[in-house]
């Protein structure tokens, strides 16, 4: 008769790739929260490790110092705010007025989300220390929207709908006027009402197109 030994206990084993990615994302999101709550100087890797239930050693194996962890957390937040080109194309109704208004609403609505608001606040408070986060935010999130508006204005100018103009300058001015002012108010804790936002977006679109109307 063959003797049967005690059952072999299997260890928990290494996490799957999906589990590791989820934990990494949790680390970066938690780090961003603490950097926002306490500021870069006061937030510590120890506090982040405790909040996310990791060891400091695990975190330092991924990021050699607090600065690299901060930049990775901000970069993740910026990437999540990037608007896919397909989304922008979907806003193009063929009507320049309606499309410009839709783009402005999209950008404002992004900042009004909890993720968008905390990212904007981090950029506002820490870009003097890490200017690269402002540059990255523009290149990844804002720049492609500016480029899309430029394309629309160039197309409208070619069709004679608007006068020939420096379309890059016009696109930047439009987004600053239609979006920038609203974002500053939202970040400051004084968000306009939905009705006010709609009025301001329409005014900015009308002002731009009236100024670019062929004479």
Q: Your description of this structure?
A:
It is a single chain. This protein is an all-alpha fold. The protein has two domains: 63 residues, Homeodomain-like (Arc Repressor Mutant, subunit A, Orthogonal Bundle); 131 residues, Orthogonal Bundle (Tetracycline Repressor, domain 2). It is 75% helix and 0% strand. The chain has ten helices and no strands. The longest helix has 28 residues. The protein is elongated.
The CATH architecture classification of the largest domain is Orthogonal Bundle
Number of strands: 0
Instruction: Give a quick account of the main beta sheet: strands, pairing sense, barrel closure.
Output: none
Assembly form of the protein? single chain
Q: Determine the mean pLDDT.
A: 91
CATH evolutionary superfamily of the largest domain: Tetracycline Repressor, domain 2
Q: How many separate domains?
A: 2
- Count, helices: 10
- For this structure, what is the CATH class of the largest domain? Mainly Alpha
Structural class: mainly alpha
Shape, please? elongated
| Ends distance | 103 Å
Low-confidence stretches: 1-11
Keywords:
Tetracycline Repressor, domain 2, 0% strand, 10 helices, 215 residues, disordered N terminus, mainly alpha, Arc Repressor Mutant, subunit A
Topology:
Elements lengths: L16 H26 L2 H8 L3 H7 L3 H16 L3 H7 L4 H17 L1 H13 L4 H28 L8 H21 L6 H19 L3
Q: Could you give a quick summary of the protein structure above?
A:
With 215 residues, the chain is mainly α.
């Amino acid at each position: 008769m063959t003797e049967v030994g005690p059952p072999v206990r299997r260890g928990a084993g290494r996490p799957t790739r999906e589990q590791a990615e989820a934990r990494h994302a949790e680390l970066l999101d938690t780090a961003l929260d603490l950097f926002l709550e306490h500021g870069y100087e006061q937030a510590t890797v120890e506090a982040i490790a405790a909040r996310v239930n990791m060891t400091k050693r695990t975190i330092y194996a991924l990021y050699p110092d607090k600065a690299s962890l901060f930049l990775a957390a901000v970069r993740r937040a910026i990437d999540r705010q990037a608007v896919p080109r397909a989304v922008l194309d979907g806003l193009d109704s063929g009507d320049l007025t309606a499309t410009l208004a839709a783009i402005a609403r999209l950008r404002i609505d992004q900042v009004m989300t909890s993720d968008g608001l905390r990212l904007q606040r981090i950029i506002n408070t820490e870009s003097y220390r890490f200017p690269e986060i402002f540059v990255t935010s523009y290149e990844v999130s804002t720049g492609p929207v500016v480029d899309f508006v430029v394309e629309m204005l160039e197309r409208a100018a070619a069709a004679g709908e608007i006068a020939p103009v420096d379309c890059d300058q016009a696109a930047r001015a439009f987004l600053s006027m239609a979006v920038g002012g609203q974002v500053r108010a939202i970040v400051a804790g004084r968000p306009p009402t939905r009705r006010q936002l709609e009025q301001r977006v329409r005014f900015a679109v009308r002002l731009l197109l009236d100024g670019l109307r062929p004479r």
